[in-house]
Fold each of these.
Amino acid sequence: MRTEDIDQVRTLPLLRTMAEHNLSTLLQGAFLQRFPVHVELIREGEPADFLHVIVDGQVELYARYRGRETTITVLNSPSCFILAAVMLDRPYLKSARVLSPSRILLIPVESVRSMFTIDNAFARAISHELSFAFRGLVKELKNQKLRSTIERLAAWLVRFNSEHGLNNEIILPFDKKVLASRLGMVPEVLSRTFVNLKDYGVKVEGPRITIGDLQALQKLASPDDLIDDPAS
C-alpha cells in the first residue's frame, strides 16, 4: 500500500487505536482498491477470504432465496463487513455489491484473526463492531415487526433528512427498488406507500422527495431512539 493510503486507513475506527507496529503488520498483506458501481464484492455461501472495510463509498448487503432477493442493509464509510464470518471462519450469509464508486480496504482473514490475539486495542475494536452490528440487527427486527409499511417509510425519511442535515428535500442515494427492499417491501408497495404519504406533505418527483410537513411526518413516524438512533 502507498504511504498516503496507509495514512488514511490508520484513521479508520477499526484501526486507529492499534499499536503502530501491529498496524504495519496487519496491512502488509492488505490492499486498498477502487470499485465501480454494481461490482459484486462477496457472495453468500462462499468462504470469507478478506475483511472488507469501506473507506469511501456505499455498499449494499443482500441475500437471495428461490429466485427472490432482498436488501439486508446499505453501508456507508467507514463500515466493515462481514466481520462475523471472518472471525468464525464461516461462509458468508450475505452478498455485497457496490452502490456508488467506492474505495475498499481488503485485509486477509488470517491477518485479522492473528492480530485479534496480539493487539488488545484491535480486539476491543472488533468486539465493538460486532456488538454494534448485533444491536443494529435487533433494531431492524423491531422496525420490521412493530411498524406498518407507511410508518417504516416515514421513519426512514425523517431519519435520512435529519442525518444529512437536509432542508426537507431528499435526493435518493440509490434506486427506489433498493429502498423498497431495504424497508421490507416490494417496489409496488413502496409506490403505493409514497402515494399515501401525500396526506403528510410528501411529494415525489423521480429520485427527489420533498417533505412539505415535517411535523406531520414525524408524528406518523413516531421516532424511537431504541429503533432509529444508530448511536444508541
Note: The radius of gyration is 19 Å.
Amino acid sequence: MIEGMELIPGGSVTTPRGFLAGAVRARIRFMRLDLGLLHSEAPCAAAGVYTQCNVKAAPVLITQKHLTNGRAQAVIANSGCANAATGQHGLDDAIEMAQLASAKLGIDPHEVVVASTGVIGTFMPMERIRRGVAQMELSAEGGLDFAQAIMTTDTRPKHVAVRFGGHMVGGVAKGAGMIHPNMATMLSFMTTDAPVAPGFLAGALKEAVGSSFNMIDVDSDTSTNDMVVVLANGLAGGAIIDGRQPAADAFSAALTQVCTHLAKAIVADAEGGTKLIEARVDGARSLEDARRAAREVVRSLAVKTAVYGHDPNWGRILAAVGNSGADMREGNTALYLLSPEDDELCLFRKGAPQPYRKSQAKACLAQREVRIRIDLGLAEASATAWGSDITEGYVRLNSRYTT
C-alpha cells in the first residue's frame, strides 16, 4: 500500500460517501444475484474505458453515448446475458434498462451506465429485468451484493476501497476468463467521494487502466462487453481536483491502487488457474517496450504451462521477451525468479545461462504467486504485468460453457 493511503477492510463501491447499491435474483441465467444497481445521491463526474474489440455489445455502445458529456449518476448491470451481437433488438433492450433504472431512481436515463456480461448472441429476458428492477432495494451496505451480481464464472466477488486524505475510492470488478490487454471479459466500476473535474477524471482513469487492467492476461482473448467506469460525486467536499493541486497526485495514486488490486484479483481467480504470475521488466528503453515485454511473458502459453508444471524452462521466458517487439539485446538481458524469501535466483545473464539448482527454481515456481524479473539492461523504464497459468480445468470449463 502506498504511503498515506489506507486499505478499508471489506470496502467496495458503496464505501465512499453517498453511494448506494443493491442486487436481486432476476433469474437471467443463474439462480443467484444477477442484476444490480449502483446509485449516487448526487450527480457525478464520470469517465469510462471500453473494449477495443470491433464487435461491441449494445450496453457498451449505449454507455459510450451516455458518458460523452462526462456525467452520470447510476449503473445498472447484469450477468448471465451479454446482450452482444443482438442488433437493434439489443440496443432497444439496453436503452430500456437505462430507462428502468432512471424511473426507479428519479434521474435522467442518459445519466445511467448500462453494463452486461454473459453469453454472447442471446437476447435479454426483459420481463425478468423489469421485475428485478421493481424489486430492487438499495443501501449503503449493498456494494458486496452488487459485486456478486456481476459475476459469471468468477468464484468470488472482487471488491476493495482505500482512503487517502479525507477522501475514499472504492471499486468492484468481475472477470475470470477471456482476459487480455486492451480490456478483457471484465467489468469494473469505481466510485469516489472526491470532487474531481471530468476531464482530469478521464485522464486519470486512462492512466490507471494502462498500468493495471491492460497489463493482465488469462487466455489472450478480448471480448465484446468490457468496460471500466468511475463515478465521482464530490460529497467529501474540498477543492475541485483538476490536476493543478497536490491532491491530484494522491487521487491518481488511489485510483491506480484500486485498479491494480482488482486487476490482480481477476487474474488470481482465473478459470482453472492455480497460480498468479507476475512479470516485472526493468531496464527498457521506453515504458511501452517494458509493457510489451511484460505482457508477452504472462500471455505466453509456453510460459503458462511451464509455470503450471513447476518446470524451470526459462528459455520460454527469454523467447517471449524476444517475441514481444520490445527493443532488447540478448547480451544485456538478465532473467531472475524470486524465491519464497524474496531472494533473486539468476537463470540467465550476459548472453549465457547461469548455474543454479533445479530444486531452487522449482521452489520459486511452486508458490501461489510466481514472480519473474527481466532486466533488459538498456535504459530505465519498467513495467509489471500479471497472468495466470493454464490448466486442464480451463479447458474443461470452456469446452462446455454454454451447455
Note: The domain at 5-268 is CATH 3.60.70.12 (L-amino peptidase D-ALA esterase/amidase).
Amino acid sequence: MPVDVPPENTREAVPVGAIAYWPPGDALCLFWGPTPASVDDEPRAASGVAVVAEIEDVAALDDVTTGARVRVASE
C-alpha cells in the first residue's frame, strides 16, 4: 500500500488495537498482542509506524494467522 506522503509521528510502541502504516514495508499493520519486538505484552513494531486508527474490540483478530490478508473497511 504505497503512500505518497511521509508518515508523521512514527513510534515503535503502540496500543493494543492500533492500525498503523509501516513505511519500510509499505504495509498497513494491525496490532492486537505481543510481537517479536515486544517488551512484555506491549505491542511493538519492528521500526517506526504511524498509527492511523484503532480497533476497539480486537477479539475477532485472535484467529488471524501471521501473514494473513485481511480487509479493512470503515463503517
Note: The domain at 11-59 is CATH 2.40.100.20 (Cyclophilin).
